[in-house]
Amino acid sequence: MGKKTMIALITLALAFVIYPLYQSYNGSETLKDVGQYYIDNGVEETGAQNLVTSVVVTYRGLDTLGEVTILFLAASVISFFLSFSKNDRIKSRSIRSVTEILTTSTQVLVPMIFMFGVYIFVNGHLTPGGGFQGGAVIASGIILMFLSNPRFKLSHKVIQFVESTSGIVFVLIGAAGALMMDGDFLSNKIPGFGFGEVGSIISAGAIPVIYTFLGLKVGAELSNVLGVFVESQSEK
Amino acid sequence: MIYIAILIIMGVLLLATAIFAVTHRDLLFAVIATGIISLILSLFFYLLQAPDVALTEAAIGIALTTIIFVITIRNTTRDEDEIIDKKNEKL
User: Fold this and answer.
1) Cβ A233–B52 below 8 Å, yes or no?
2) Could you read off the pLDDT of B7-32 as tens digits, one per residue?
3) From A72, A223, A232, B8, which residue has the greatest number of CB atoms within 10 Å?
């Protein structure tokens, strides 16, 4: 039996498994209970215009904390293993020349990319996007800097400081809501942050603060992964 | 009607790019094809009213993943046949 017949058989088996799901699917016209609750009370309870954000940061804030922890673990494991292999082959990375087009366009684009990333997570409670998306956009700006300048190096101290501080602040804000206002852990009701007017940039209690630190944390982690990845490469 | 036509065209493009990515021998072309898949997917998410997911897909799928693969190719080899030949030599 050849390899191709095996692949065809596996594909057929997958189709056989998935077909009942397709058959039994019928789009529902109404929302489920939880979704209806979020739509009815979401804006009132959290003050955020973007309902997805109010679910991600407030109603399901603990899940977001778990997600950030997973990302942190992945980033630390990657940098642990890659920094091991870096010591084996000592600094043999040759410096490649970079074209004029790339360097010039990087100088123009990187500030805009950073500003767009910051815009995404500062406006997380108003427009689509938030900490994760903004952080990923910032990391893509950093990788452009790596590509355009082969001698560019990320300062690991700065990355570590940004990453750990924003993580601690995120948890502290969550705890402040629980301890000082009799709310739940990671609720957005914390002292000193009113709900404000729905739709303005300073509103929704702690959500913009949490999302700003989340964006910094995710951006620092992803940039660190990319930086370690680029630095550990060597050319024979 | 136009909406459905656009969705169908995008789906066909998505499939064509995916088949190109799997079958092409030059790995750099294949990786760029996967980037284009992410681009079409993020358009899909946007049209299906999930702008948050579209943003994530755009930032991670198009930029970060593609660049990581390109760096890997730069440090290994661009030609898929070469990898298969090396494997056969060992056997």
Assistant:
1) no
2) 899 999 999 999 999 888 888 899 99
3) A223
In 3D space, the residue among A173, A210, A203 whose CA is nearest the CA of residue A49 turns out to be A203
Closest CA to A177 of A167, A166, A186, A165: A186
Is A210:A204 a contact under the CB 8 Å cutoff? no
Domain interval for residue B55: 2-90
Contacting A residues, span 103-142, partner chain B, CB-CB under 8 Å? 120, 128-130, 132-133, 136-137, 139-140
- Nearest chain A alpha carbon to B50: A128
pTM of the model: 0.79
pLDDT digits (tens, 9 = 90+) for A68-126: 889 889 988 988 887 766 555 545 555 667 788 888 989 899 999 999 989 988 888 88
Rounded to a whole number of angstroms, the distance from the CA of A177 to the nearest CA of chain B is 26
